[in-house]
Amino acid sequence: MSKHEMLGAPRGAEQSELACTINGEEMKLEVAGSKRLLSVLRDDLALTGTKRSCEIGRCGACMVLVDGKPINACLTMAYQCAGKQITTIEGIGADDGGMDPVQRAFLEEGGFQCGYCTPGMIISVKALLERSPDPSEDEMEEALSGNICRCTGYGGIKRAVERAIEWRRKAP
Amino acid sequence: MLLNRETSGKRWRIRPDGLGKVTGSLAYLTDMSASGMLYGRVLRSPHPHALILSICTEKAKQLEGVHAVLTHLDVPGLNRYGIAHQDQPVFCENKVRYVGDAVAAVAAETAELAEYALSLIEVDYELLPIVDDAELALSQDAPLLHPQGNVLHRSQFSRGQLDSGFAACSHIVEDTYFTPRQMHTYMETEGGLFVPEEDGRLTVYSPTQHGFMDRLQLSRIAAMKQERIRIVSSPIGGSFGGKDELNVQPYGALLALKTNCPVKLHHSRWESVRAGLKRHPMKIAMKTGTDASGRLLAHQVRIIADTGAYATLGAEVLNFTVEHVLGPYRYEHVEVDGYSVYTNNGMSGEFRGFGGNQAIFALEGQLDRLAEKLGMDPWELRRLNMRMPDDSGPFGQPVVVTEGAMQVWNAAEASGLWRERSMPDGDQEREPWIKVGIGSAFTMHGGGLGVGIPDPAGGRLSLAADGCIEAIFGYEEFGQGLLATLELMLIEQFGLAESDIRMIIGDTDLVPDSGSTTASRATSMMWKTLQNLKAPFTSQLLERAAVLLGKAADMLVMGAGGIYETAGRSLLLTYKELAEVEGEPISCSTAFQFPTSDTARTGAHFLYTYAAVVVKVEINQLTGRVKVLDQYHAVAAGPVMNPQGFLGQIEGGSSMALGFTVTEDAVMQQGQYMTKNLDTYLVPTIAEHRGTVTVEPIEHLPQGDSYGPRGIGEVGSVTLAPAIAAAIYKAVGIRVTKLPIEPELLQNDCAFAFAEEAVSER
Predict the structure, then answer these.
(1) Is there a contact between A107 and B14 if contact means CB atoms under 8 Å apart?
(2) Is B634 contained in some domain?
(3) Rg (alpha carbons) of chain B, rounded to whole number
(4) What is the ipTM score, two decimals?
(5) Are A153 and B237 inside 8 Å of each other by CB?
(6) Rounded CA gap, B586 and B462, in Å?
(7) If both were cysteines, with which of A44, A128, B349, B445 could A143 make a disulfide (CB 3.0 to 4.6 Å apart)?
(8) Can you give the residue ranges of every domain in chain A?
(9) What is the distance between the alpha carbons of residues B428 and B422, in angstroms, rounded to a whole number?
(10) pLDDT tens readout for residues B242-291
(11) How many beta-carbon pairs under 8 angstroms link A with B?
(12) Which of A55, A112, A113 sits opposite B269 (nearest CB)?
């Protein structure tokens, strides 16, 4: 028994295998079942585009797509991801390596400043437009109200969403 | 001209830091890691005020995987920090004064172990009475928080004869205004990576707004020569003033030096809340009077600011408030008395607007109340009392000639939104408990640190060996768009192409000290630097090219990709070819101070930005909630250097002002934070931003003005609050004196009765 086990320290919890797909790549990871997805992504896989901020599911900086739905990685346990398709900001681009139209719209409209909320924001917009290609203002508000941006006042973000909607409409 | 993508044309550009931000590939300093890295954590006081009787770290030290446990006994140098006044302990010795006070720090092999190690540190406290109210802290029998007393700073200003001034007044209004403990709420909490280098130097990767100030402060704490410390301070996930002061740096630095391993710290949101700075809560009492025609005669102000446990820039913030409670108006008789007071509440400090936000909320409230007494249009009352272009500054100090006040006044007066004010409802049908009103307010806001404070500026331009033109500045990018602004200035002033430019910022090993990236100063100072460097740098390049090309230097010009003949359009020589020629390196620097007024008054400003805001709000008398429908901002700050950045600063600043007005308050009781995270501390979401924001920059400067663009980083966050208060009064006849506005204030029994009736009729 090591010294810190005697003292009741965190015991490196039992590792178990997590099989899931991350950004299109099938993965088998040895992680503690109690670990959060946010930590798996940032600390184990160095996918630091997913950000850590409030850690209570309020700000949306850590949003990723799980089977196409936007979720807060800070509230998701690793074991809940078994068999799931996870897409982070690093995996959101087009298959040819180019940007997703949502990313391009944020870039061109200046829908960001410090950029720390941007990956989560783009994930939410992407999920919104997948399920509702031409959202009403109410839908947009509902879909993005879980993503806090402290810099922009949301003006640039709204313009980016409008631009993305327009591009997707024109796209073949 | 209204500012947007369409009106900006080619000047609306993709930001150089944009690609990394939208793809997630940009590594923030808190995203960094290193092999063999340890995790640092800080043990903070659970008590707002207590004596430390003993600290025992033995159990924590014995824990396997713990590499260091530090207390005040382990600080090699000065166990204090603070940008202006070093009174904040790195580690408390025998007393804690707020719930963020640090007592110990650990470095361990995992984050979990580090956290567990904190729980093994035994600290015995003896609780002391809590001073949780700034006014009580001023009373004779209040417990003393510091040996010298509870007043960090008192700032006074007077002119004329107040008594006779008020005696001559026909109308006098008196009111007291309260503003909240607003949190910066940068999305990236404080953190960073601290790396001891093989040669014994220390590299600090951690956000700050003035790398050289962090280097100076850390050198004092670690007892290391400044040159032995390298501060990498950019990019940053938001700051707004909140990362200007040291936060994790002392702990990361000392732990890394002690363990000789890289150490990472990254605050949880709760640790950021408890330890971090906030906007000073202020109580501002004002008595203001006019003659029968509405001319301001006398103005008396008393300010009490809750500065929390330690100084940081509390004194400087108060100086700013004292200047800005006078605003862009003329008075004969003035008396201002301000106190910045120590309490056991959370730390207050530097925050976008720097004490102007509180001042303008109160001052503009007074103008509105006086206008009503006079039966005068509130905007007309402002025109009547407005400063003139040649007037001296609020303290009577010489300032640059400026037409800004009249420019923004006129622009707001002519705006569509202000013209709607007599019939804000238009022909829209609304429920009877929904009321609509339009209000406006007016601001002048100083730029730079002011008289008496070192405020260095400058930068360097070089032709690098690979042919890039390097622009090197000691500034930080925390989202404001500094890099985009610099890039556009280089393109427009030197004719360069984007691909010719390399910008280097935020690294004390590579950049000159350009001063702090604060106080709305960086754009002005980069512009001035380029003005200073344009002639010498261009001539160095052209003279070298002239020799090479066998042409006269005055026949050559700089352009995209290289050197051109003045008359011709063809590229004669690329910058790369020029860089490959042997000779002295081509490089030019300039160093100067932010321009200041010729006065002895500490903190007085010389350059000001002006803003006027018109806002339309909707009040729901059942819920008491305020919804902003439309905003118009006129901003007079000289030429727009970067349209996207300008628009973003005003939109973003006004969002912060909206939170300040309607929801944001870091609530404390008995020195403890009640709002520990973003579930209870409510910043505006997209749902609060459904209306339009129209921004009108006024670029015209008086003839001969040589100061160029004024800062716009803060002014957007200042003027919305009093404009909303004015709009609320228009809509429902209720005066707001306390922010954030409590819904109860605006709920109305008649509206309830009406709603009940409507329901029962159904």
Answers:
(1) yes
(2) yes
(3) 27
(4) 0.96
(5) no
(6) 6
(7) A128
(8) 13-91, 101-170
(9) 14
(10) 999 999 999 999 999 999 999 999 999 999 999 999 999 999 999 999 99
(11) 194
(12) A55
Is the model's pTM score more than 0.90? yes
Cα separation, B78 vs B220, in Å, equals 6
Question: Is domain A101-170 classified as CATH 1.10.150.120?
Answer: yes
Beta-sheet pairing, A15-22 with B562-565: unpaired
DSSP letter at A71 equals E
Q: Which residues of chain B have pLDDT under 70?
A: 427, 762
B182: left (phi over 0), alpha (psi -120 to 50) or beta: beta
Mutate to test the interface with B, among A31, A42, A149, A151 (most CBs of B within 10 A): A151
Partners of B119 on chain A (C-beta within 8 Å) are none
Residue where one domain finishes, among candidates B275, B291, B323: B275
Give A14's pLDDT tier (boundaries 50, 70, 90): confident
Interface of B with A in 117-156 (CB under 8 A): 120
Could A53 and B188 be called an inter-chain contact, meaning their C-beta atoms sit closer than 8 Å?
A: yes
Q: CB-based contacts of B562: which residues, under 8 Å, 6+ apart?
A: B571, B572, B573, B574, B575, B576, B577, B578
**Backbone phi, psi, residue A116, to 5°:** -75, -30
Out of A47, A90, A150, name the one closest to residue B185 (CB): A150
Shortest CA gap B526–chain A (Å): 19
* Minimal C-alpha gap between A172 and chain B (Å): 24
The nearest CA of chain A is from the CA of B500 a distance in Å of 21
Q: Is A79 left (phi over 0), alpha (psi -120 to 50) or beta?
A: alpha
Buried b (16+ CB within 10 A) or exposed e, B543-568: ebbbeebebebeebbbbebbbbeeee
Could you tell me the two tokens for B745? 């204030």
CA distance B539 to B340: 51
Tokens of A104: 């391009």
* Helix, coil or strand: residue B340: strand
- Answer whether B235 touches A (CB < 8 Å): yes
State whether the Cα torsion B323-B327-B331-B334 is positive or negative. Answer: negative
Residue B24 lies in a domain: no
Which residues of chain A are within 8 Å of residue B481 when distances are taken between CB atoms?
Answer: 113
φ/ψ (deg, to 5) at A128: -60, -50
User: Looking at beta carbons, which residues of chain A come within 8 Å of B59?
Assistant: 7
Kindly report the average pLDDT of chain B as a whole number.
97
Q: Which residue of A has its CA nearest to B24?
A: A49
Task: Look up the domain containing B216 and give its range.
Answer: 29-129+187-238+243-275
Q: Do B113 and A9 touch (CB under 8 A)?
A: yes
Separation between Cα atoms, residue B122 and residue B120, nearest integer Å: 6
* B191 contact A CB<8A: no
The residues near B661 (Cβ < 8 Å, ≥ 6 apart) are B626, B720, B721, B724, B725, B739, B740, B741
| A13-91: CATH topology | Ubiquitin-like (UB roll) (3.10.20)
